[in-house]
Design a protein that fits this description.
Order of helices and strands: HHHHEEHEEHEEHEEEE
Protein name: Molybdopterin-binding protein
Number of helices: 7
CATH topology of the largest domain: Sulfite Oxidase, Chain A, domain 2
Number of domains: 2
Bound molecules: the ligand Nc1nc2c(c(=O)[nH]1)N[C@H]1C(S)=C(S)[C@@H](COP(=O)(O)O)O[C@H]1N2, molybdenum atom
Domain Oxidoreductase molybdopterin-binding: 88-227
CATH superfamily of the largest domain: Oxidoreductase, molybdopterin-binding domain
Structural class: alpha+beta
Pfam families: Oxidored_molyb
Strand order of the largest sheet: 2-1-10-5-6
Organism: Brevundimonas subvibrioides
Helix content: 25-40%
Distance between the termini: 53 Å
């Protein structure tokens, strides 16, 4: 085979193998392999960091002022009805790819294994604050629900629409199953030793201490185990993700 031809065939094969690179990068082999290397190292860093704990603080570090952000007082009628009697009729629905779907009252959730942690919250808008959170360990609740092997993501559907209309897009978020099983991932119902305030997500909000604030869904209505979130809302895995934010918001 003449060398030129060989090079051409190899070149075509390499271009196919590098299918993950974008069109600009594909025009330069070097740029493309750098991009590949970066993706591989990001993946292995995340795998190595799977069990790492976010820093925890002491009582004396708790911020005197922890601001509430995003929705602070949902107006959806289903939420208002539950709020009116102190969330006594609230049920957390957990369904999707599980053997044992759950419907849990706040009393039942409070009776589940819990964790308390003093952690720092970082909002993408540039503020941070430290608070103490107590909540049910999501890993234990997932054990109870018996997650099917094909489930890859945990989706949190919330009561609030940011435009406060009845049919506005409601907040939602998603994380992968290993992140949901992390020791510090809790469904919080207490903040600084008090019942979780409405402004901070009552009756139940996610605490996910190694990612940015927007991942931590407040006002959780339902949790669904899915194989993919392509079919949900804008398909990017979260309210803000559908509007351009990154799905993985590790800090
Ligand atoms: N349901 C819902 N969850 C949400 C939001 C929201 O608007 N609605 N805002 C997010 C953002 S951007 C941040 S920083 C935190 C704010 O939590 P806080 O109100 O306890 O400060 O909640 C996150 N979770
Ligand atoms: Mo935020």
């Amino acid at each position: 085979m003449i060398p030129e031809r060989r090079g051409l065939i190899l070149g075509a094969g390499a271009a196919l193998a590098l299918g993950g690179c974008d069109r600009v990068a594909r025009t330069s082999g070097l740029q493309c392999s750098l991009k590949k290397a970066e993706q591989v190292s990001q993946r292995s860093q995340r795998a190595l960091a799977r069990d790492r704990l976010a820093p925890e603080y002491e009582e004396k570090d708790i911020s005197s002022d922890f601001r509430a952000n995003g929705s602070v007082d949902p107006q959806a009628s289903d939420y208002l009805a539950l709020k009116a009697n102190g969330f006594r009729d609230y049920r957390l629905i957990l369904d999707g790819l599980v053997e044992n779907p759950l419907s849990l009252s706040m009393t039942e959730i409070r009776a589940r294994p819990s964790r308390t942690q003093i952690t720092k919250h970082d909002c993408v808008e540039g503020w941070s604050a430290i608070a103490k959170w107590k909540g049910a360990r999501l890993s234990r609740i997932l054990d109870e629900a018996r997650v099917k092997p094909e489930a890859r993501f945990v989706v949190f559907y919330c009561f609030d629409a940011l435009d406060q209309t009845e049919d506005g897009d409601r907040y939602y978020e998603s994380i992968d199953v290993p992140e949901a099983r992390h020791e510090q991932t809790i469904l919080a119902y207490e903040m600084n030793d008090q019942t979780l305030p409405i402004a901070n997500g009552a009756p139940l909000r996610l605490r996910l201490e190694r990612q940015l604030g927007y991942k931590m869904a407040k006002y959780i209505k339902r949790i669904e185990l899915v194989e993919s979130f392509d079919h949900i809302a804008g398909g990017k895995g979260g309210y803000w993700e559908d509007r351009g934010y990154s799905w993985y918001a590790g800090i």
